[in-house]
Amino acid sequence: MWGIIATWRMAVEGISEASHILENNGDAGDAIETAIQAVEDFEYYKSVGYGGLPNEEMEVELDAAYMDGDTLDIGAVAAIKDFANPVSIARRLSRERVNCMLVGEGAEKFAHKEGFERKNMLTSRAKIHYKNRLKEVQQQDIKPYSGHDTVGMVCLDTKGKMTSATSTSGLFMKKKGRVGDSPICGSGFYVDSQVGGASATGLGEDLMKGCISYEIVRLMKEGMHPQEACEKAVNELDKKLKARRGKAGDLSLIAMNNKGEWGVATNIEGFSFAVATASQPPIVYLTKVVDGRCIHEVASQEWLDQYMKTRMAPLEEK
């Protein structure tokens, strides 16, 4: 028995690679790192890794985290620049007894010392996105912040070990040094091999208000199926934020328990995710909310084709 679940369509190639590791009795840590690296390395996914959208100073600052569900070891980096595959740096940090979460210059010094690859993560395509958004903001009354599709995953291997990991470039045109939920344990991710794991994507500032990944694992520990736990946690946080603050940002969560059962919940339209297990090949699903319940449908080939066409379409500066 094994399984891996991830946020967004962009993860399906990565979890396909991870599936080969898992079906050959590989380690959940190796599998999830491989899967997230695939997303980080593909420049057309503009919210993660290479080609990620820059902050307001046109710098790509990346956040990533890794957690081992057997030992509860955690590693995380935040606002790190000019290094490829921040998830791998986070995993390396998880082996540290202390100093396992590093930010900015400190994270970069550690990565350099450990021999990680230096790389300019700002692509010409991302520069065009940035310049076009600047003009849009000047010409229209729109918010600069968009494009915060974190890749988050939960993985189970044949030995029962579970892991969770995240990687993101965060909010487009965010303030320099801004950090969202993705590298924050309990908010962007959480996993316990004796129970299960969860990971989040959406507006980090609101996801953090509910420590929502930990909440889902807690609900699963009480006996809830992952789907029930995700829906309860997302619906309750959505309602609380609206009651206290008048609105709620995007909240989307994925989860898997230690039996390989999975669940997904969201408060937005158009959320996609990908799953692979010992009994099913990698599949992309689309989720829609109907009367407070989340319905998952297999994405059509037409939708999948359009997704890639949109992301890889040529860009011109406006």
Automatic annotation (TrEMBL):
It comes from the Bacteria. PANTHER family: L-ASPARAGINASE, N(4)-(BETA-N-ACETYLGLUCOSAMINYL)-L-ASPARAGINASE. Pfam families: Asparaginase_2 (PF01112). It comes from Longibaculum muris. InterPro entries: Ntn_hydrolases_N, Peptidase_T2. GO terms for molecular function: hydrolase activity, acting on carbon-nitrogen (but not peptide) bonds, in linear amides. The active site is at T150. The record marks D149, T150 as: Cleavage. This is N4-(Beta-N-acetylglucosaminyl)-L-asparaginase. Substrate binds at R178, V179, G180, D181, T201, G202, L203, G204. GO terms for cellular component: cytoplasm.
